[in-house]
Amino acid sequence: MSSAETSRSIDTVMREERLFPPPEAFSHRAHFKSLDEYEVVWEAAAADPPAFWEKLAREELHWFEPFTETLRWNEPQSQPFVAEWFVGGKTNACYNCVDKHVAEGRGDKVAILWEGEPGDSLSLTYAELQTEVSKFANALKSLGVVPGDRVSIYMPMTPELAIAMLACARIGAVHSVIFAGFSAEAIADRNNDAGTKVMLTADGAWRRGKALALKETVDEALAKSATVEHCVVLKRTGQEVPWTEGRDHWWHDLMQEASADCPATPMDSEAPLFILYTSGSTGKPKGIKHTTAGYNLYAKKTYEWVFDYQEDDVYWCTADCGWITGHSYLVYGPMAAGATCVMYEGAPNHPAEDRFWEIIEKYKVSVFYTAPTAIRAFIKWGDEHVDKHDLSSLRLLGSVGEGINPEAWMWYHTKIGGERCPIVDTWWQTETGGIMMSPLPGAIAAKPGSCTKPLPGVIPKIVDEQGAEVGADQGGMLTVAHPWPGMLRGLWGDDDRYKEVYWSKVPGKYLAGDNARCDSDGYYWIMGRIDDVLNVSGHRLSTIEIESALVSHPAVAEAAAVGRPHELKGEAVAVFVTLKDAEPTDELRKELKLHVRKEIGALAQPDDIRFTNSLPKTRSGKIMRRLLRDIAAGKELVGDTSTVEDYAALAKLRDDEE
Ligand code: 6R9
């Protein structure tokens, strides 16, 4: 490869040849049964995306008023970069997720199977959910909430959290869910940015047996949130809470007075449904804006396709609602499909490391969706926790949030899936609203570590710095060529940043911010965020490939690779490693360096290996490589750290020297 080529594409150092075709018994009753079938649908959708989505929108959503125009999108280069879908129509996301099922005679089907951390549980049918949601919608109305008002939600993973989201949708209020672990500062920033009118919280939240003081944190935030008029408090832990008369209201008091009669408000297709803040690489978090009809349709169809929805499924997504995965694949997608969803309040290792497997056995979960960070933790905790439980109800497994290292994939496949369950490695973002690339489990053979192929209606293109498409196996920037219904409709109150981040670098295409390559079979491999690429002696290396090589060593639980400045090479590879049982010795350090060299070549051999007990992660489990880069370079930590899950881990790393 010439140096001109290496300078604009990213070198692939890792090869993964294993192929796992869908089991026949699975394909037999799947939505998509063969690669041919998928290809026919994908080609037809790509030839005319609006026609493809129009048909689905008319069939799958309930319309108070039908739409008159499928897509309003000024061809690229022109303004305003915001697509409008199903223009002129009126629908309601809560109606589609709840009332539609009751109206169609499925009211007795269980919607939520909830498991509290201390072991309490609750099940709600779609009809019961309709009553609860209607009552809480009336409660919000009684506090003066009208369509378009913003409601911030800072609650534990209780059924009331889902009820609150749906109640907002029911009356056209815009929810902003804030992960119930963020600081008062982070809550206040988000409230002020959104102009929140009403705040929903709980007295406390259970986390590993301890009660976190949510209301106290919220009070601190509200002292700096001038727009908030009311605060509703769910009683969960029963702890003492500070109280402001007139502003604060108990959830149960409002519910007691609320009538269960609250028809869903017909909303414009493009009425904002929610804002969800996500960390930018620097500076303040971005308020990703999603709207009603397109998002709802996209969440529903992608849920049905990717998780191969069957009427008798018991589906469990372990994500918190403070993350987009909790929005699209715990609430809006599965509920629009009418699925039975397990919802769990607490930590995966409370009271013991087998809690997830216990829940799968208890509820006979058939489809399980979690994140690589959790999978790597399970591997570290040991197989004995898995072996205690009967996981034979499982038929399909999913992964989201980061690339799944091939070795973690293999463990998930054999240990959890009993070698019979397909795995869907789903690539998508807060911005995309729903899954963009993933195997369709009955149709597309998996390659461990690849999110495989785009869903119907999604047209990815990998481009170089000049915006030209790159060839097979050449890494480049991942973009999407045509609008899709689930895409973001902007950043709340910041059009300039929206244009700058997503539309300025590559004209006319949505810039995802990830690097990727597509192999000669048309399989996509995500190589990490654009700003995470390492440049070693002119070779651009992907973080995920180096990390996967490390994770394939039996001593390694997790690894994060970053670049640090190096006089000769430009950048040197620095890695942070957590171990399974092994001792962190110099011997092992040498062995790991050689292991990477053997697996992927001398180019990628790490210069530094630092052992640590844990890696700094975002709340959704993504390794914060940006911060590790600063640590590796010996710099002070700057920028937004509000999304770091465990600041202590970070501080410790900074203070530890190799
Ligand atoms: C859903 C979600 C988005 C970023 C995305 C990418 C990474 C997500 C991935 C993946 C490789 C996958 N990512 N899924 N990378 N393989 N299957 O995670 O949304 O929190 O906005 O993060 O996560 O880097 O750009 P969000």
Automatic annotation (TrEMBL):
<feature type="binding site">
    <location>
        <position position="597"/>
    </location>
    <ligand>
        <name>CoA</name>
    </ligand>
</feature>
<dbReference type="GO" id="GO:0016208">
    <property type="term" value="F:AMP binding"/>
</dbReference>
<comment type="function">
    <text>Catalyzes the conversion of acetate into acetyl-CoA (AcCoA), an essential intermediate at the junction of anabolic and catabolic pathways. AcsA undergoes a two-step reaction. In the first half reaction, AcsA combines acetate with ATP to form acetyl-adenylate (AcAMP) intermediate. In the second half reaction, it can then transfer the acetyl group from AcAMP to the sulfhydryl group of CoA, forming the product AcCoA.</text>
</comment>
<dbReference type="InterPro" id="IPR042099">
    <property type="entry name" value="ANL_N_sf"/>
</dbReference>
<feature type="binding site">
    <location>
        <begin position="425"/>
        <end position="430"/>
    </location>
    <ligand>
        <name>ATP</name>
    </ligand>
</feature>
<feature type="binding site">
    <location>
        <position position="529"/>
    </location>
    <ligand>
        <name>ATP</name>
    </ligand>
</feature>
<feature type="domain" description="Acetyl-coenzyme A synthetase N-terminal">
    <location>
        <begin position="38"/>
        <end position="97"/>
    </location>
</feature>
<keyword id="KW-0007">Acetylation</keyword>
<dbReference type="Pfam" id="PF16177">
    <property type="entry name" value="ACAS_N"/>
</dbReference>
<dbReference type="GO" id="GO:0019427">
    <property type="term" value="P:acetyl-CoA biosynthetic process from acetate"/>
</dbReference>
<keyword id="KW-0436">Ligase</keyword>
<feature type="binding site">
    <location>
        <position position="540"/>
    </location>
    <ligand>
        <name>ATP</name>
    </ligand>
</feature>
<feature type="binding site">
    <location>
        <position position="553"/>
    </location>
    <ligand>
        <name>Mg(2+)</name>
    </ligand>
</feature>
<protein>
    <recommendedName>
        <fullName>Acetyl-coenzyme A synthetase</fullName>
        <ecNumber>6.2.1.1</ecNumber>
    </recommendedName>
</protein>
<dbReference type="InterPro" id="IPR045851">
    <property type="entry name" value="AMP-bd_C_sf"/>
</dbReference>
<keyword id="KW-0460">Magnesium</keyword>
<dbReference type="GO" id="GO:0046872">
    <property type="term" value="F:metal ion binding"/>
</dbReference>
<feature type="binding site">
    <location>
        <position position="537"/>
    </location>
    <ligand>
        <name>CoA</name>
    </ligand>
</feature>
<dbReference type="InterPro" id="IPR020845">
    <property type="entry name" value="AMP-binding_CS"/>
</dbReference>
<feature type="binding site">
    <location>
        <position position="551"/>
    </location>
    <ligand>
        <name>Mg(2+)</name>
    </ligand>
</feature>
<feature type="binding site">
    <location>
        <position position="514"/>
    </location>
    <ligand>
        <name>ATP</name>
    </ligand>
</feature>
<comment type="similarity">
    <text>Belongs to the ATP-dependent AMP-binding enzyme family.</text>
</comment>
<dbReference type="InterPro" id="IPR000873">
    <property type="entry name" value="AMP-dep_synth/lig_dom"/>
</dbReference>
<dbReference type="Pfam" id="PF13193">
    <property type="entry name" value="AMP-binding_C"/>
</dbReference>
<dbReference type="InterPro" id="IPR011904">
    <property type="entry name" value="Ac_CoA_lig"/>
</dbReference>
<feature type="domain" description="AMP-dependent synthetase/ligase">
    <location>
        <begin position="101"/>
        <end position="492"/>
    </location>
</feature>
<dbReference type="GO" id="GO:0005524">
    <property type="term" value="F:ATP binding"/>
</dbReference>
<feature type="binding site">
    <location>
        <begin position="207"/>
        <end position="210"/>
    </location>
    <ligand>
        <name>CoA</name>
    </ligand>
</feature>
<dbReference type="InterPro" id="IPR032387">
    <property type="entry name" value="ACAS_N"/>
</dbReference>
<dbReference type="InterPro" id="IPR025110">
    <property type="entry name" value="AMP-bd_C"/>
</dbReference>
<feature type="binding site">
    <location>
        <position position="556"/>
    </location>
    <ligand>
        <name>Mg(2+)</name>
    </ligand>
</feature>
<feature type="binding site">
    <location>
        <position position="349"/>
    </location>
    <ligand>
        <name>CoA</name>
    </ligand>
</feature>
<dbReference type="Pfam" id="PF00501">
    <property type="entry name" value="AMP-binding"/>
</dbReference>
<keyword id="KW-0067">ATP-binding</keyword>
<keyword id="KW-0547">Nucleotide-binding</keyword>
<keyword id="KW-0479">Metal-binding</keyword>
<dbReference type="GO" id="GO:0005829">
    <property type="term" value="C:cytosol"/>
</dbReference>
<feature type="domain" description="AMP-binding enzyme C-terminal">
    <location>
        <begin position="545"/>
        <end position="622"/>
    </location>
</feature>
<feature type="binding site">
    <location>
        <begin position="401"/>
        <end position="403"/>
    </location>
    <ligand>
        <name>ATP</name>
    </ligand>
</feature>
<feature type="binding site">
    <location>
        <position position="325"/>
    </location>
    <ligand>
        <name>CoA</name>
    </ligand>
</feature>
<feature type="modified residue" description="N6-acetyllysine">
    <location>
        <position position="622"/>
    </location>
</feature>
<dbReference type="GO" id="GO:0003987">
    <property type="term" value="F:acetate-CoA ligase activity"/>
</dbReference>
